[in-house]
Amino acid sequence: MAPTLPSIARRLAWTLLAAALASSIAVSLAVWLAVRHEVDELLDDTLQGAAEAMRPHLAHEVPHGAGDGIVDRASNRYAWQVVEHGPDGQARVVQRSSRAPGSALSATPCAGFADRPGWRVFGTAIGRDGRMLYVAQSREEQIEATLEIVMQAALATLAIALLSHLWLRVRVAGELEPLQRLGARLRGHDLLAPGATLGAAERLELQPVHQAVDLLAAQLGRRLAQERAFSAHAAHALRTPLAGIDAQLAVALREAPETLQPRLQRVRAAAGRLQRVVAALLTLFRSGVELQRAPLRLDALLARLPVDGLVITVAPDAEVLADADLLAAALMNLLDNAVRHGAHEVQVRLAAPGIVEVADDGPGVDAERRAVLRQALESGEAGDRGASSGLGLVLAHLVARAHGGRLELPDSEHGFIARLNLNPGPISA
Questions:
Q1: Count of beta carbons in the 10 Å neighbourhood of residue 319
Q2: Among 40-54, 69-83, 100-114, the least confident range
Q3: CA 186 to chain CA mean position, Å
Q4: Is the same domain home to 396 and 409?
Q5: What angle do CA 213, 205, 2 make, to 5 degrees?
Q6: Total number of domains in the chain
């Protein structure tokens, strides 16, 4: 099934959303690569600034308790230690925050930045007794800070993308509305109406489409008018000579000797088949713009179809909604097809509402030939059941297509089955 304009709009909108999500991921990765070094430097500057702010308040000269607020505030964000490095090389933690480890962050005096397992440390000397202040931040917090920046950038990009998606979806739906209205106008457009035209387009860019459709409609209208005129003339040009041939053959059968009568009878039967084919063709391409659907009893319809040498069985209560002339043409050709291929009995039944089956007791066809016929029906090149000549299945298929359905050839162990599906709309295989 071909996609509709709303489905195209939805697919386009989802494609844009997927592109927006991909761009968000790409932007987040680019932000992380771009700011990772800058974030590390910013965190180091903050770490150094915290150490410089805490240094005078932790020096031994400062009375106990002075600057406790600054130390406490720094302790909420960093871990710190005051470490005394003795002459024996031992490092002893004199003071520390609750977040700091119990062992010294550095075994030897180390000023400046240093990396320790799980910590980023900045050291600075305090007082005159060789004590060191180490202010540290855990690697987890540094990674969390970096990820927070990246996530904020990604969320901002995603928010912009979602807003763009909604805006584009509204815009796309608005742009497709003229096409939807154009499709509605085309569905109700009568090609054969005098002066039929789509008129001016709603959008300037759609004007070439309107012009092309009007040109195509004019060409199709002329073609249909020519075909209808041909059908009207062909009805008089073909029916009368064929009827005269049949009448002369009937007279010849009465007057001819018995040795010639079988040959004349075959000629008359062939002329009768030709009459039925011509009638079916003229019925199929008759004048008229609408299909004349009506409830039809199959037994009454088949009673009007003259098919010699064939026993037809049909349920008396079988009824179908169809065009009487077209269905009669299709059944007549299917029955004639059965006779020509050696069938003696035919069952006409309703396989389901709107589905007419014609099953004969003839030799049928093998699976390979049936597959070829199915493919030929789809391509419009099918002939009779044995070769590429003949019009029986083609005409039946055209009648089913005129009703909105199709001709199906189901598998059969005995004989041959042709199924006329007259239900409009999508047809299952």
A1: 16
A2: 69-83
A3: 23
A4: yes
A5: 55
A6: 3
For residue 383, the model assigns a pLDDT of 46
Here the tokens at position 116 are: 């320790």
Strand duo 345-352 + 311-314: pairing: parallel
Residues sharing a CB contact under 8 Å with residue 44, sequence separation 6 or more, in sequence order: 113, 120, 122
Give the C-alpha separation, 92 to 302, whole Å: 114
- How many CB atoms sit inside 10 A of residue 81's CB? 25
The full DSSP string for 119-147 is EEEEEEEETTTTEEEEEEEEHHHHHHHHH
* 315 in the same domain as 268: no
What is the rounded CA–CA span in Å between residue 235 and residue 281? Answer: 10
Q: Which residue has the tokens 């029916």?
A: 239
* DSSP annotation of 188: T
Q: Tokens in use for 424? A: 């409009």
Beta-bridge partners for 357:
349, 419
The predicted structure's pLDDT at residue 390: 46
Geometric angle at alpha carbon 69, from 66 and 70, rounded to 5°: 90
pLDDT at residue number 43: 77
Going by DSSP bridges, is the β-strand pair 293-297/416-421 parallel, antiparallel, or unpaired? Answer: unpaired
DSSP count for the chain of H helices, then E strands: 9, 12
For residues 62 and 122, give the distance between their C-alpha atoms in angstroms, rounded to a whole number. Answer: 22
Cα(356)–Cα(334) distance, integer angstroms: 12
- Mean pLDDT over residues 403-412, rounded? 87
- In tens, the pLDDT along 230-249 reads 766 766 677 778 788 888 88
Helices 261-284 and 392-402 cross at an angle (nearest 10°) of 20
Q: Taking Cα atoms as reference points, which of 42, 44, 41 lies closest to residue 120?
A: 44
Residue 148 tokens, joined: 């927070």
Strand 406-408 and strand 311-314: pairing?
Answer: unpaired
**Is residue 232 a part of any domain in this protein?**
yes
Taking a C-beta distance cutoff of 8 angstroms, is the pair 361, 345 a contact? yes
In the chain, the amino acid numbered 261 is Q
Q: Quote the domain boundaries for residue 269.
A: 206-289
Evaluate whether 247 touches 214 at the Cβ level (below 8 Å): no
**Is the domain of 399 the same as that of 298?**
yes
